[in-house]
Amino acid sequence: MSHKIEHTDVLLQLCKEGKQSAQLEIYNRYYKAMYNTAFRIVKDSAEAEDVMQESFLNAFTKLHTFKGEVTFGSWLKRIVINNSIYHYRKQQKKNEVALDEVLYKVEDNDGIASDHVFTELKAQKVLETMKLLKENYRVSLTLHLIEGYDYEEISTLMNMSYANCRTTISRAKESLRKKMISA
To answer: How far is 113 from 126, CA to CA, in rounded Å?
Structure first.
């Protein structure tokens, strides 16, 4: 694993020197995860693609500010989440929330153990049920449960107090539980 980290560090150095092949390699390593992160927040495939592309441009132009205190992937993911929230809020202001929501696609793999399939179906049901939540509940739960942010980080990202963040996530979890039971 340390070899791959070193390799990433070498690629990042080449990116700083303007090598497009290194930028393409970094893009190819991270674009799927970054797209999925954006998609879970903005809920629109084309919008998520735009956010992801914009985030990579931001990252490459601001690569000189990357200090290596966290992994490059974590640093990039923070950019994607910030851009996703910005686009999400912009959508909300314009009232352009899509009526048709894109369903999460769980790929079928042949030969999976039934327990794994059951767990996957359960996870898919949770993700689909999360889409039924109020927008602030959905976004805060996505950041907390899926992206792994703590309350303090979420309160900063969503521009709310720490106490309000904890209350929102608690209510969102309860709302999700109720919807899962009734579904």
So the answer is: 20
What pLDDT digit, counting tens, does each position of 131-144 carry?
Answer: 888 988 988 888 88
Residues recorded for the chain: 183
Comparing 71-80, 103-112, 139-148, which segment has the lowest mean pLDDT? 103-112
Distance CA 55, CA 85 (A): 12
CA distance 163 to 23: 41
Are 138 and 131 in contact by the 8 Å Cβ rule? The answer is yes
Question: What's the Cα-to-Cα distance from 59 to each of 36, 77, 122, rounded to whole Å?
Answer: 17, 10, 35
Statement: the pTM of the whole predicted model exceeds 0.85: no
Q: Do residues 78 and 65 lie in contact, with contact meaning Cβ atoms separated by under 8 Å?
A: no
